[in-house]
Amino acid sequence: MGAVQQEKNIELKTYTYYEPDILQIENIYSPTEIKTNKKNGKKRETGEYNLEYHLKITSPEMQKMVNLLRLKILELLDVKENFGKSGIFYRTIKGLEKSFARLEFRKKWVWLLIREPYYKSDIKKIVKDVTSNEWGYKGMIKFTPDSDVNYIFNLVK
Asked: Radius of gyration (Cα) for the chain, nearest Å?
């Protein structure tokens, strides 16, 4: 026995016994309680994530570049665009519905996560191997305003 098993749903309670038929139970810790996320003292907005939500994170130059790449990806056959909290991802809609690319937005650039860590067609060697991070995506590209959209798109498709 070398491994330690962790229980995920443990609650800590106190109880006080009053009279023969009264028992008071109080929660001290419960992992299912909803806690508000605060960042720098501000309450974080919750709601539906969409294209505008992600584009406003990055610069106007990057917004143009992202839209060029998005349009090329969406022209591919059987591709669906999905919006999540941390980015936009693209899936095939036939067969296994596998995600093949993901855009994660920063102020001056966008991380583009892709399926493979190496591509024979990547003669500029812009794909970084991130296999060890175990994100599901094995390759990552720093997509900047100076990037060649056509070159990157050829790696994605």
From this structure: 23
User: What percentage of the chain exceeds 90 in pLDDT?
Assistant: 49
Q: Quote the CA–CA distance of 151 and 157 in Å, as a whole number.
A: 10
Residues with Cβ < 8 Å from 61, sequence gap 6 or more?
A: 145
Reply yes or no on domain 51-156 having CATH 2.30.30. no
Q: What pLDDT digit, counting tens, does each position of 52-89 carry?
A: 999 999 999 999 999 999 999 999 988 999 999 889 99
Chain-centre distance of CA 92, in angstroms? Answer: 17
- How far is 109 from 142, CA to CA, in rounded Å? 7
Residue corresponding to tokens 């090329």:
72
Q: Which two tokens stand for residue 6?
A: 């962790």
pTM, whole model, 2 decimals? 0.67
Check if the beta carbon of residue 109 is closer than 8 Å to that of residue 118. Answer: no
